[in-house]
Amino acid sequence: MKKKRVYIFLAIASIAILAVIRNVQLKRAKAPEYVFTYAENQSEDYPTTKGALKFSELVWEKTSGRIKILVKSGAELGSEKEVISQMQYGGIDFARISIAQISDSIPEMNVLQMPYLYNNSEHMWNVLYSPIGDKFLSLMEEQHLKGLSWYDAGARSFYNTKKPICKPEDLVRMTIRVQESSYMNNVVTELGAKYYNTSYADTYSAIERGVVDGAENNWPSYISSGHYKVAGYFSEDEHVRIPEMQICSEHTWNKLTAQDQKIIMECARLSAEYEHDLWQEEEKKAKQTAKEYGCVINELTTEEKEAFKVVLSELYPKYCGKYRDIIDQIIQVGQNK
User: Fold this and answer.
1) CA 68 to CA 56: how far, in whole Å?
2) Is the model's pTM score more than 0.70?
3) Rounded Cα distance, 108 and 110, in Å
4) CA dihedral 264, 266, 270, 276 (to 10 degrees)
5) Closest Cα to residue 268, out of 114, 54, 19, 32?
6) In order of start, what are the domains of the chain with their CATH numbers?
7) pLDDT attached to residue 9
8) Position 22 pLDDT exceeds 70
């Protein structure tokens, strides 16, 4: 009887041990081969962050869980310039950045963000989805980065605490927060304002405390950042359209097989299409939110925008003297459509 009980006990124990071993094996089998980080400075509900999450989801699905990408939003991993620096040394794997943040290092990038270069959003996308856009993605390799796809960031306009901006002279003596970019510094200086560089996260406080009179950005950022609560005058001058880009660290890219690189590129493209659709929806919602809050919105006429265009045309020789042929190609794209 005792032997029988011992046999039963040993049998149960063996089954339990085998179950534990099997469970460990299953967990190991499901563990990702790679776990990468993705830096995003916007909040979780922002279109570019949602695009990043879609990218992560697609990569996970198409690699059957071999590659996991953790999206860190809200500038958790630092400002865009800090993120770029870390990526160049392999500290961060993926990110979404504004090309304004890399144009000081790659001057040719300034071409894509020149004032009033595009007739409209469609014109810009026809450029970015052409060999011209592909060439600019490849320029990132100069900085040990891999350009993956283009993200939408709309048109940037001025907003402030004082009055509507209807002509360049309205900006004279104002202090405007801009991105940390010598090009953007020159944009506001050319219009007669003073520029002020601070991080996106600190801009709300700078406006609230009167350190700056206003800033410039797109509609979704104006709302998601809460700037509409402290700077109630939004003027749709649409002085620049600055494309944004999904990028990968060269260190990370070189770890991947050719097949995985192909998957990453495909997922980046699909997530860009997803983000572009989201962006259009968010622009409409953001503008409606501002109206309901009581913000003063003035839509500049074609003639009023022309006055800004004339002033800012002075920047073209400075930033595009060497690249006039590319400017002409971009203009031609707009004329062909």
Assistant:
1) 7
2) yes
3) 5
4) 80
5) 54
6) 27-336 (3.40.190.170)
7) 52
8) no
